[in-house]
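CORE FACILITY INTAKE
Project code: CF-77B
Contact: R.S. (postdoc)
Sample description: multi-component assembly, two entities in total
Requested service: structural model of the whole complex
Turnaround: standard
Below are the sequence entries exactly as provided by the requester. Do not edit them.
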Amino acid sequence: MELPQVLVLGPPSIFPYLESQFPNRFFFLKPWLYNLPLTQFLTSYAQSTQALLIRGGGSTQLTSAIIDCLPSLKLVVTSSVGVDHLDLPELRRRGVAIANAGNLFSEDAADMAVGLLIDVLRKVSAGDRFVRQGLWSKKGDFPPGLKLSGKRIGIVGLGKIGSEVAKRLEGFGCKVSYNSRTKKSMAPYSYYSNVYELAANTEALIICCALTKETYRLINKEVMQALGKDGVIVNVGRGLIIDEKEMIRCLIQGEIGGAGLDVFENEPNVPEELFNLDNVVLSPHNAVMTYESKVELSKLVVNNLEAFFSNTPLVSPVVD
Amino acid sequence: MELPQVLVLGPPSIFPYLESQFPNRFFFLKPWLYNLPLTQFLTSYAQSTQALLIRGGGSTQLTSAIIDCLPSLKLVVTSSVGVDHLDLPELRRRGVAIANAGNLFSEDAADMAVGLLIDVLRKVSAGDRFVRQGLWSKKGDFPPGLKLSGKRIGIVGLGKIGSEVAKRLEGFGCKVSYNSRTKKSMAPYSYYSNVYELAANTEALIICCALTKETYRLINKEVMQALGKDGVIVNVGRGLIIDEKEMIRCLIQGEIGGAGLDVFENEPNVPEELFNLDNVVLSPHNAVMTYESKVELSKLVVNNLEAFFSNTPLVSPVVD
């Protein structure tokens, strides 16, 4: 019996694990093994491919030019929560179904957001560098950071991840506020209808929203200036939600206090100006990935692919 | 009018701030400015000194040899919560009063303990090094860490700091257990009467207890082996609560998973074997210090000194 064919783009970071743990279920088409331009590979080998597994956003984009090379495409499974790297209108127009990582990552992303916030405020990574460089015994006391307990924290996007961040911050005695498209009637936090007001009334912003036309460069110069010189930004959303150039200028000139960044505009390339700053913590888009979630995500991807090939409903479909 | 004299040993990290913010209240005796052995300085200049301000434990000890040089001593104010660096029996015998930092640091210490735990599990500092060294664009995906949400966490010492840690970890959905001298009837967490059992039943240990004869090297080889190869240790107590040599061996040989250390046996000297390990986070005894707590602690020290010199009760006395 022939195995169902799955084209893999990216590939997702879980792919080697998935491939070894779930053998003999699919035939994976791997363009990166061929010395061909992608469109040429697809035209030659993927004309009957119905299912595509793609890495999350950042460096990999599913453009209409790629979709045009896949006439039989009926399913896209992305290993991410976000779908900003997919040309949604084009996929919809062609009736292609989409599955994503569902809520699998919410806890991990929230844990990391809080970890980055503590790290920036309390200078954990900077202190670690100080000790490893042998400076503690030479230079004496390391300068203190800022307190987290009791701080006013603003969450941008109170979806599943944002809500998990809020729950965690309550344990630290923080005063949580949020901004989102609409007020959530069940959320016990102050709502600000615009992010500028949120920044003006809080000491740190945690970016938890999806990248959309509305959130593209939402965190701009005015928002950062409202946040102020001791203010901290944590981003576990997408790099393009922040005006990155402006943020770097604000960090260097002390117009904001610091930043904990898991995502960047042009991953995996991180602007080198950030490498020498002690008030930033740089994370290689790792917020949503733990060993445990890698295992769970691999299962979820396989379950979505098997559902598709057996004509049963997707486990974690993306619906409008 | 002559200002009341205060001998300063250490000095505490807050001392420069305290001195500049509260001028003309005390005459500070600063032995480190004199080119004399300490005992000779004290014998020459501190014979009438009644009040002593001392840095917290780690590198500074108030031994009976020093106390012997201070015949007029009536008050010791330490800038720490812990009093393990003070010769308590000798001070008690002489009727010397002691004031410490009270509960001032509990929130900051708990925030840092959780920050170190997230950092070790999720490899935050290691990821930051990876990005800063330009390895993300060269080597690709950074290996995932371990999940915090839902983990079984053991707290060693459920005092003020331990309780604040527990409260925070509840927000992460962790299952909290603890070990302490006695079961706390009000605490909603599982109690283990010995730390070995606690380690055997949890995935991380957070050391929050004071250093005493009973807790000296409490975390020994057997406890670490019970914790196991994915287990993590966080220490915001004192370095001597862990068998440091054995811990380093366990870290290098993979017998425990990782460690987040704010305190060490011989501060500010940190064993160099730790500098090259990616599964440890090293913090320069900074858990209890933030800008905000520096301000509050300076006020508290001044209030204790002024209470003493005006014969009113100490604000934060250490009582048996």
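Facility notes:
- The domain at 5-104+291-309 of chain B is CATH 3.40.50.720 (Rossmann fold).
- Chain B touches chain A through 59 residues (CB under 8 Å).
Invoice: internal transfer
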